[in-house]
Design goal:
Elements: H1 19-28, H2 31-40, E1 41-50, E2 54-55, E3 58-59, E4 66-75, E5 79-91, E6 95-110, E7 113-123, E8 137-148, E9 151-163, E10 169-181, E11 187-198, E12 211-222, E13 227-236, E14 248-256
Antiparallel strand pairs: 1-4, 1-14, 2-3, 4-5, 5-6, 6-7, 7-8, 8-9, 9-10, 10-11, 11-12, 12-13, 13-14
Helix pairs in contact: 1-2
């Protein structure tokens, strides 16, 4: 399933919607069934503070600090559901909060190759929408990952079909990411490149172009088993707009639990 690392690849950390329901289910089950539920369902969470919320090379926090976090619930069969949220730059259209809800399946489809497919719903609970209608939209996604020597390679696609919130136009994002740990150190190196084509590449007509390329180079430092510090350089070939599409060095401190 997609983990918090996928923020580097143009996605966001995912978490779960029904963690409380799963816990309640286990509490009212018979002892044997409760034990089975605990062994087949995994609940995990994450939280982070970042100097700039960058998504596919674009700043959603206007170059300011953002607070993020979420919860994931996964089943041993590979199915998962989750939710993730972040503070964003306050605006009438989107409000000051983004909340993502998602679900899908992830698993090894052949030796060394993992497939992840699902549907993500972007929602802005305190936004008023824009001239095109509501701000919320759906985006199916799929990715495959494997290893080449010491390097983990992930390639994927996300496609948002024509929706009123997207100006009745569609959008596709294709990306490839690389990740490799340095042996006997707490350091992992990351790189990513993505291509965006469609309405999401030109929000509110700001950029004047619908297509752009973004890329990222970063390094993770595992402070502890649960605490990670990340430093990343991100940039795009879109028209330069300060605190939106311009290059940036982003620092993130994240914890998983």
């Amino acid at each position: 399933m997609r983990t918090s690392d996928k923020t580097k690849f143009g996605f966001k950390t995912r978490s779960s919607l029904f963690g409380i329901s799963a816990a309640l289910l286990a509490s009212v089950a018979t002892p044997a069934l409760a034990q089975e539920e605990e062994s087949s369902i995994t609940i995990s969470g994450n939280a982070a503070v970042t100097s700039d919320y960058r998504f596919r090379g674009l700043s959603f926090s206007d170059g300011d600090i953002a607070i993020q976090g979420g919860i994931d619930v996964s089943h041993e069969s590979g199915f998962y559901i989750g939710t993730w949220g972040s503070s964003i730059e306050d605006s009438a259209t989107f409000g000051h909060t983004e909340l993502d809800i998602y679900g899908g399946w992830s698993g090894e489809v052949t030796s060394g190759i993992t497939l992840d497919v699902g549907l993500l719903y972007y929602t802005y609970p305190n936004g008023e929408g824009g001239a095109a209608g509501p701000s919320d939209y759906f985006e199916p996604y799929a990715s495959v990952s494997g290893t080449v020597g010491p390097v983990e390679v992930t390639s994927g696609i996300a496609y948002a079909w024509s929706q009123s919130s997207l100006g009745n136009s569609d959008n596709v994002y294709i990306y490839t990411g690389l990740s490799a740990g340095i042996p006997d150190t707490p350091i992992t190196l990351n790189a990513n490149i993505g291509i965006n084509e469609g309405s999401l590449g030109n929000p509110a007509g700001i950029l004047g172009v619908d297509d752009y390329v973004d890329w990222m180079l970063g390094v993770d430092f595992a402070v502890t088993d649960n605490l990670t510090a990340t430093l990343a350089y991100t940039d795009t070939d879109a028209p330069a707009i300060n605190n939106f599409t311009d290059s940036a060095i982003v620092f993130t401190l994240g914890v998983s639990f």
